[in-house]
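Posting here for the record, re: ribose-5-phosphate.
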Amino acid sequence: MPDIDGTNEAKQYFTDVPQKSESYFLKGSNSLDWGMKNRLGRIFNPVSGKTVMLAIDHGYFQGPTTGLERIDLNILPLEPYADTLMLTRGILRSIIPPDTQKSIVLRVSGGTSILKELSNEDLAVDIEDAIRLNVSAMAVQVFIGGEHERESIINMTKMVDRGTRYGIPTLAVTAVGKDMVRDAKYFRLATRICAELGAHYIKTYYVPEGFETVTASCPVPIVIAGGKKLFELDALKMAYRSIQEGAAGVDMGRNIFQSHSPIAMIQAVRAVVHDSETPEKAFDLYNTLKNKKS
Ligand code: R5P
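Prediction output follows.
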C-alpha cells in the first residue's frame, strides 16, 4: 500500500540519522567475520568484556581427576554459574544436557596420556563434529619449547584454518613442560607465537612478575588457567590480579571444582572477573555462600 504522504515516508527512513558503525568489544577481534564475533560474544560477556570458563577437560589425558569423578553429580550444579564449559566431546555428549544455554569450548587436541610424552598430541576431533556440536570455540594445546613443539603449533594452525571456514574461533592453550620456567618471558613468547599464527584467544598461566607485559604484547584476549588447587583466597587473588593486569577472564578448573564449596567458589570468581570485586570481598562472599549452604 502506498504511503499516505511523503512526510511520513521520510520519518520511517530516519534519513537524518546515520547508521551506527560500532567496533567489536574484544581486543584484536574487530576484523573477524560475523559468525566468529557472535561465537566469541557467547564466551565473553559483551557487558563486562570478560569470561568465566569452567575447565573440566582434564580427563582427556589424566582420567578421572579429583573433583571430576562424577561430572553429572559434581559439575552439572556449577553449570548455571559458568559463562562457558570447556570440555571434551565425550563428556559433552554423554553428560551435558543438550538444552544448555551455555557456550561450549571443545577440546580438539589429544592423543596422549600422563603415562607418555604429553606434547605428542594430534588433532582428535574433525571440524564437522565441532560444527555438529554447535561449539563456540575449539581448544588446541600448544607446547612451545616442548618436544613436539612444531607438531602442536601446526595442530593449532590447522584448526585456525578449518575454523575460519565455518566461523569457529580457536583457543590456543599454552602448555608448559614440567622442567620449563614459568615466567613472563616464556609466556610472552608462547602467547605471541599463538596469536601471530592466528589463534583468536589464548589461555595461559598467571605469573606474579610482569604478567601485564604478557597481556600487553599479545594482540588478542588472554584468559588464565587456574593451575593446581590453592587456598580459596589465594586463587581469588590470582584471578583478581590477572584481570587487573589485562586478562579477559579465567578458564578455571581445579580451583573451582576442588574447592570446599565449588558453587560458592565459582560465584566468588565471577565477582572478581565480571565486577572487579576485590579478592577479600569475594572471599567474604565465598564464605557467606558456603555457610548458607551448610
Ligand atoms: C588441562 O587439562 C586443561 O588445559 C585445563 O583446562 C586447564 O589446565 C585449566 O584447568 P585448571 O584451572 O585446573 O588448571
